[in-house]
## 1
Amino acid sequence: MMGRNWVLVSGAVAVFIISGIVVNGARARGGATQGTTVGPKTAVQQFKNIQVLKDIPADQLIPAMQFISASLGVECEFCHVEGAFEKDDKKPKQTARVMVGMMFTINQDNFRRAARSDVLFLPPG
Ligand code: HEC
């Protein structure tokens, strides 16, 4: 039972990470390299216990959470202690974090490659 659920979870989390959110994270990083500290707050600055989705804009975190919940067809409480989202007491949250982390690492590697090719096309100065 649990095993099959987790195959589903990992599939949905993978889809979620590949779509959208990582692109947003990359955009946030891109902004930072343009030499300005003005920009959207990142999730790690706004929330208490962010270990993986640190670089995404803070205002993307809740939509991302809603997307995960909708994808899995579960409530926030599937992963979270009600009223204490920062707590890691629930096993599904820990498992989800590990999977999000793996996908995030893979995508960051892809983006590093993409970013390098962008540099070639930057105008001088
Ligand atoms: C499949 C599991 C899962 C579901 C369902 C889920 N979350 Fe999360 N949530 C996580 C994980 C994992 C993190 C930590 C992310 C990290 O470490 O980068 C997190 C972090 C958060 C945080 C940041 C807490 C802090 O202060 O550190 C908030 C707020 C949050 N979730 C809200 C929600 C809401 C609202 C919902 C329902 C719409 C929801 N989550 C559904 C897994 C889940």
Note: The radius of gyration is 16 Å.
## 2
Amino acid sequence: MSSKDERPKSGPPTASEKPLPVPDGDTKPFWDATRQHRLVVQRCDDCSLFVFYPRSLCPSCGSDRLTWREATGRGVVYSFTVVHRAPPQFAADVPYVIALIDLEEGVRLMSTIDDPPSQIRIGAPVSVTFDDVTTDITLPRFRLALD
Ligand SMILES: [Zn+2]
């Protein structure tokens, strides 16, 4: 056994080491829109259901006629948690809020709320903001709505 410490010496992870979405055939339109600071969700042309996460078939009627629609970007907090112990890539961000957001369109998505955790309440109105993480990926995040 070597007495040398062979563990790599490295500083804290940087933001660029955070995992990022990898757009695919179903999700590329969503990520193209967020890059333009627009939030879009799919709507079924046959049964009118709004659909999220992005997919190729309607989960209600099985139709493949899903059309991207502009969302209002407004919603309410369905539930949330405050992260105090995070994976290394997110350690510098604690405490932070991960929330399930119910959009006005009727779909639920997971995101962050960039306000102090003590101000977040279930049912609180929120609105989308956009975080240009890289030149290719913009993440939708949320803030408490003031109105
Ligand atoms: Zn449908």
Note: The first strand starts at residue 40 and ends at 44.
